[in-house]
Each structure stands twice: as structure tokens, then as C-alpha cells.
């Protein structure tokens, strides 16, 4: 009887240590898996997946930079000025820091062959006004129309194409304040605010609401009266629109918005414009650098993009406007997911071990 009990006990111990080592193995393989996951997410984040298969060429004919030769005076320049804009040695000033001005600079030539491109905008917004006593902002354009005055940062309303706005005055906030209404924190936007909109010729920009009804995405950007250089970066690749900003003087791009399924026709005009009202600012463009990108596409992607786009549009627009677009997991999200997985797994092991040792103890006790 005693011998049998001892044998059983030994067997239990053996299975016990087997289970323990199984757990250890699981733990190790889990860790390996976690490390691999972390490493791969790190490499994904570092290795901007568009860049290693992409070449870029500066297209001088679509770029505007110092010394602005002939801009504003000669018909042979690729760029044309409009309204109150003027060129100096340091910048193209779209508006001076004076009330009720509007100005623009437009490319004269359409971008026929450009499918994928990147625009790097070096700009400067500065003026006498204190915070929220300045306005109204500037815009970068890729549109069918050019040289049309209007209320949308100095361009016509119901434009056809892409507008990226640097809106420096919170009209909606002032409007709500006047009505004694409050923002909910979820919907509050901090100004200056960068925002993108795609128009098809019959969509209006809602100035009183700072374009909220047509906002594809945006971000806060404290760009006024800075000593260092400020940049905006608009990239259009495989129908994906990405806007980034570099405004902290650190030479680092910060994500602003990123939207897939943006359909923009080829052969539109690039331009920049700005407007002032009761409040004003200097809105300066130092340079607009356009890079043509050569992007490799899979057969499937080529087939998908074969159909010629004639009217600008955005896939799943309703969801984007409602803010329901599913976003890929960010690095931080991945990190926390993995962390919580690990914690959860660790807890499981601890609980398992406790339960097992209790069970083992009880079993042994029964034999004595
Ligand atoms: C333009 O967009 C609006 C809003 O998305 C849509 O209702 C309208 O049908 C579009 N017009 C054209 C010509 O595509
Ligand atoms: C823009 O389009 C809307 C809707 O089609 C129309 O009501 C509005 O008058 C248009 N505005 C301009 C300036 O063309
Ligand atoms: Ca505004």
C-alpha cells in the first residue's frame, strides 16, 4: 500500500515537473514571439514602407523656390501671382499683415504625367496680432481651376480637387461662444488647425464651421510667429493622401492625416493662397517643392488603378466624415496590446502554478 502510494506520488511529481517544464517552454516561446512581434513592428515603423521601393525626383517646373526668377513679372515664369500677393527676395508673400487682403500664387502648367507626388511646403505665418486675434490662414491647392478669387482662403468655393488648409482663426468656436454654447472636448479643435478637403465642384466649404462638415482629417499646428522654419508635407501615393508637418524646428515630420482611397485626377494645377479679414497675418510661401515619385505597383494595384479618374472623390467618405474609419494599429497600440497579452499570460501561469501546487498538495495529503 505504502509502495503504491509512493509510486503514485512519484508519478504525480513527474507529471508535475513535466507540466512545469511545458509551462516554461510556453513561456519561452511566448517571449520569443513577443520579441519578434516587437522587432517587426519596430522595423515596420522605422522602415517607411513606401520609401525603400520608391524614387523621387524634384520637378523644377512645378516647384517654386528662391530666387523666384521672373515670378510675378514675366510670362515665361512657371508661376503666376494673383491679388495682393507679391514677391520679395525672401518669400512670396500671399497676404501682408493687413485687413481684407487675398492673394495667391499658381502654377501655369498642368501636371500631366504626375501620378504619385509629394509637395514640400516651406511657409511662414506671422503678424502683430495676439493669439486668436489673427487670421484667416492659407491653403495649398491641387485643383482643376486656377487664378480664381474667392472665400476659401482666397480661392473660389466649390473648387474641384484637393485643398490643404492652415486655418489660423477658430470661427466655429467664436460662433458658439457668441451663442453661449460650449464645445464638447471630443469635438474641439485647437487652432491653428491643418485640415484637408476634397471637392468635386459642387461641395461648399463651410467657413463658419472651419470646414468641419467636409473635413477628411486634420491636426493642430502652432505655426505662428516662430523663429525656426515651418514645413507642410503633402504626399499622394497609390491614392493615399498623407499630410505631415514639421513645425518644431527639430527636422522631424509629425503625422497630421492619412487617408486611403482619395481619387484625384491627373493634370491639375498646384497653387497656394491666403486671405485676411478683420484680422490679419503675413502669409508667406518660401518654397513649394514638388517631387515626382516612382512607385512600384503590384499587378493587382495596377489593375485597380487603371480606370481613369475624372471627378475627385474619396472612398468611404461618409465613414471618414463621421470619424469612423478604422485605423491601423499604431506603434503605441501594438506595444500596449503586447504588454497586456504578456501580463495576462503571466497571470495565467501564476494562477496555474498556484492551482497545481494546491492540487498536488491535496492529492499527497489524501495518501497519508
Ligand atoms: C460631389 O460630392 C457630393 C458630396 O459627396 C455628392 O453628393 C455629389 O453627387 C458629387 N457630385 C459629383 C458631380 O460627383
Ligand atoms: C456651391 O455649391 C452649392 C451646392 O451645389 C451651391 O448651393 C452654392 O451656391 C455653390 N456656391 C458657389 C459659390 O458656387
Ligand atoms: Ca477659420
TrEMBL record:
Gene3D superfamilies: 2.60.120.200. It is found in: Endomembrane system; Golgi apparatus membrane. The chain crosses the membrane at residues 332-356. PANTHER family: VESICULAR MANNOSE-BINDING LECTIN (PTHR12223), VIP36-LIKE PROTEIN (PTHR12223:SF20). Residues 56-293 form the L-type lectin-like domain. This is VIP36-like protein. One of its GO terms (cellular component) is endoplasmic reticulum membrane. Keywords: Disulfide bond, Glycoprotein, Golgi apparatus, Lectin, Membrane, Metal-binding, Signal, Transmembrane, Transmembrane helix. GO terms for molecular function: D-mannose binding; metal ion binding. InterPro entries: ConA-like_dom_sf, Intracellular_Lectin-GPT, Lectin_leg. It holds the Pfam family Lectin_leg-like. One of its GO terms (biological process) is endoplasmic reticulum to Golgi vesicle-mediated transport. Its main location: membrane. It is a single-pass type I membrane protein; Single-pass membrane protein.
Amino acid at each position: 500500500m505504502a509502495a503504491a502510494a509512493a509510486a503514485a506520488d512519484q508519478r504525480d511529481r513527474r507529471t508535475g515537473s513535466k507540466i512545469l517544464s511545458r509551462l516554461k517552454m510556453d513561456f519561452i516561446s511566448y517571449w520569443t514571439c513577443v520579441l519578434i512581434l516587437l522587432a517587426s513592428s519596430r522595423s515596420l515603423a522605422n522602415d517607411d514602407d513606401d520609401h525603400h521601393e520608391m524614387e523621387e525626383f524634384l520637378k523644377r517646373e512645378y516647384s517654386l523656390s528662391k530666387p523666384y526668377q521672373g515670378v510675378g513679372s514675366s510670362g515665361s515664369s512657371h508661376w503666376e501671382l494673383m491679388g495682393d500677393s507679391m514677391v520679395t527676395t525672401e518669400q512670396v508673400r500671399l497676404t501682408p499683415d493687413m485687413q481684407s487682403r487675398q492673394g495667391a500664387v499658381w502654377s501655369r502648367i498642368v501636371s500631366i504625367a504626375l501620378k504619385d507626388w509629394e509637395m514640400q511646403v516651406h511657409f511662414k505665418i506671422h503678424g502683430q496680432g495676439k493669439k486668436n486675434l489673427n487670421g484667416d490662414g492659407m491653403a495649398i491647392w491641387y485643383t482643376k481651376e486656377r487664378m480664381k478669387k474667392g472665400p476659401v482662403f482666397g480661392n473660389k468655393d466649390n473648387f474641384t480637387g484637393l485643398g490643404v488648409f492652415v486655418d489660423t482663426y477658430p470661427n466655429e468656436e467664436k460662433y458658439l461662444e457668441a451663442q453661449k454654447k460650449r464645445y464638447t472636448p471630443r469635438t474641439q479643435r485647437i487652432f491653428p488647425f491643418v485640415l484637408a478637403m476634397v471637392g468635386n465642384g459642387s461641395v461648399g466649404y463651410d467657413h463658419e464651421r472651419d470646414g468641419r462638415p467636409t473635413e477628411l482629417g486634420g491636426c493642430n499646428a502652432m505655426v505662428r510667429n516662430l523663429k525656426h522654419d515651418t514645413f507642410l508635407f503633402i504626399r499622394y501615393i497609390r491614392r493615399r493622401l498623407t499630410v505631415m508637418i514639421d513645425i518644431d524646428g527639430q527636422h522631424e515630420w509629425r503625422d497630421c492625416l492619412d487617408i486611403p482611397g482619395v481619387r484625384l485626377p491627373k493634370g491639375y494645377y498646384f497653387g497656394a493662397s491666403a486671405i485676411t479679414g478683420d484680422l490679419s497675418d503675413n502669409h508667406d510661401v518660401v518654397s513649394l517643392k514638388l517631387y515626382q515619385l516612382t512607385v512600384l505597383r503590384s499587378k493587382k494595384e495596377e489593375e485597380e488603378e487603371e480606370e481613369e479618374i475624372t471627378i475627385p472623390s474619396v472612398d468611404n467618405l461618409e465613414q471618414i466624415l463621421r470619424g469612423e474609419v478604422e485605423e491601423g494599429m499604431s506603434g503605441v497600440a501594438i506595444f500596449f496590446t503586447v504588454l497586456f497579452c504578456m501580463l495576462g499570460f503571466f497571470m495565467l501561469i501564476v494562477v496555474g502554478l498556484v492551482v497545481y501546487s494546491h492540487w498536488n498538495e491535496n492529492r499527497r495529503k489524501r495518501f497519508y
